[in-house]
Amino acid sequence: MATYEELMAQSEELKQQAEAVRQQEKLGVIAEIREKVVRYGITAKELGLAGTRAMARSAGSGIRYRGPNGEIWNGKGRRPDWLKQATSAGRNKSDFAI
């Protein structure tokens, strides 16, 4: 039977593998979306994306960072655990800026 430490190491390895697969799949999704945007001449405004950063800030949403699993943080106060883990694994806080 595996020890707690071994299971936690396996869990972390699986999380890293899952994140790598998610990032790879994300690239494919982005490419597909871009191709369709060009093919159909879709604009950011039609998608409801025109000026979203400026509008989000002016609306006071305050969300400045999004984690790998959709977690959010406004950049104030204590850093969330997901960001601590990511930065200790070599990622930069700016990698999660929205």
From TrEMBL:
SUPFAM superfamilies registered for this protein in UniProt: H-NS histone-like proteins
Primary location class: cytoplasm
Signal peptide: none
Example of a GO cellular component annotation carried by this entry: nucleoid
GO molecular function, one term: DNA binding
Keyword list, A-Z: Cytoplasm, DNA-binding
Subcellular localization(s) per the UniProt record: Cytoplasm, Nucleoid
InterPro entries xref list: H-NS_C_dom, H-NS_C_dom_sf
Gene3D superfamilies, alphabetized: Histone-like protein H-NS, C-terminal domain
Span of domain DNA-binding protein H-NS-like C-terminal: 54-98
Superkingdom of origin: Bacteria
Region (Disordered): 76-98
Annotated family: Belongs to the histone-like protein H-NS family.
Name of this chain's protein: H-NS histone family protein
Organism: Ferrovum myxofaciens
